[in-house]
Amino acid sequence: MSAATTNQSNTGQPDTKVPAGNNKAPQPPAPRRRNSLAKGHLPRFAIPGIAAGSLVLGAAASTLTGFSVATMAIYTAIIFVLAASITTTAVEGPRRGKNSLATYLVYGAFLLALVPLASVLFTVLEKGLPGINMHFLFNSMNGVTGAVDNASVENGTPVIGGAYHAVVGTLLITLWSTIISVPVGMLTAIYLVEYGKNGPLARAITFFVDVMTGIPSIVAGLFATALFAVLFGPTARMGIVAAVALSVLMIPTVVRSTEEMLKIVPNELREASYALGVRKWRTITKVVIPTAISGIASGVTLAIARVIGETAPILVTAGLANNINVNVFGNWMATLPTFIYYQIITPTSPTNIDPSIQRAWAAALLLIGMVMVLNLGARLIASLFAPKKGR
Questions:
Q1: Domains in the chain and their CATH numbers?
Q2: pLDDT in tens, 155-174
Q3: Using an 8 Å Cβ cutoff, are 272 and 345 in contact?
Q4: Which residues pair with 14 in a beta bridge?
Q5: Reduced to 3 states, what is the DSSP secondary structure of residue 202?
Q6: Separation between Cα atoms, residue 340 and residue 131, nearest integer Å
Q7: Predicted TM-score (pTM) of this structure
Q8: Which residue from 1, 6, 82, 390 puts its CA 20 to 30 A from 65's CA?
């Protein structure tokens, strides 16, 4: 058989073809160069082990200056970030070490931002839950005096007096402010996006909306008080005045959120409607707004949640009442923020402030619950009204 043919070795593998007259042995393939970016990898237990060791060292370091959970958490976080980054750099290289350092810093910033929120929620739940009961939710402060609080403290009986009137006032004032703000804000945003086209009037409106966004809440309350003092006299303090003050704070938020939602509606939808001969106002009402309604509804709900906890405008516009008032066009009205404020500043019984403090914490928990429900409602509305995805 010729030397140029392929021979079968004893191992069963075919030999390399060697040209006739060339007796050189075949050269093995050159070894592949290892990628400098591909280094060793830390085992899975390395980061959890570093975290456990950091916790132990953080607790030990905290005992040197007087043990506390806060100092232990700070020491643990610093030790973990440094140790994990150095270990990753040593094993996997500087590129992955820098990446891990940035990652742990981001995680640390996130956890640090959660600390105040968790602390507020824990404190309000701890101090507010004992005061939440049926009597607190469905009774007002009408007839509750310092003697009543003194008797409840001395006899160990449940605290008398609730925030029902404040809840009713909060809901009514917020409802009227929404009725005022939403149409004005939505129509303004529609003009800016669909008709203004960056004209002189549109630029002026945008400027004033930006200015209104930064107005302090007390200024809005003073504006509403001055306006109604001119119209109805200097003693005009009622729920509708507070609603007007809150609407001044709500309108910029509604305008901005609605404007941004309208801007993201594709122009192709408008052009398709115009091509079918549909008028502009009908295109806006039947095409543009339904497409952006989920974001608009979410923005409006968040605007309501933003003003429902305002205190300063209510103090100068609606005053404070201890009885239930469902008429926003007459007499003073109480809201949950003003109820909390007066229970802390002027307790019902100056000698026994514990009942007033309990009412204030319970009202704060109730207010946080209302804001949380509004935010969850905003997400639910956004999901319900979102355009359906299909073919």
A1: 46-131 (no CATH), 146-385 (1.10.3720.10)
A2: 888 888 889 999 999 999 99
A3: no
A4: 8
A5: helix
A6: 13
A7: 0.76
A8: 82
